[in-house]
Fold this protein.
Amino acid sequence: MQFAVVLVTAAIAGFVCAIIARNGKAPLALAGLVLLLGLVMATAKVMTQPADTHEVRFGPVSNMEAMQKARHPSWVVFLGPFIGAAGVVIGGKLKKRG
């Protein structure tokens, strides 16, 4: 579901960017920026993520505690920027058709 939300919101951003830029190359520049910043943030996330403690959940756990201890697989963190960049390009091309 996360990837679908990223794709749709990035496509909307690319569409708005194409409207503002009047069909220039701005959506491609935005896609590059999304990819670059996303990869930098993903690298920082993976490098600062604590080691796996192999904790097992027993009994009720608060939502806040579950969110604080959540861990994403590395491939998920690095795939997000590529999906975001693709969404921006798709959104930018939607304006050119219309």
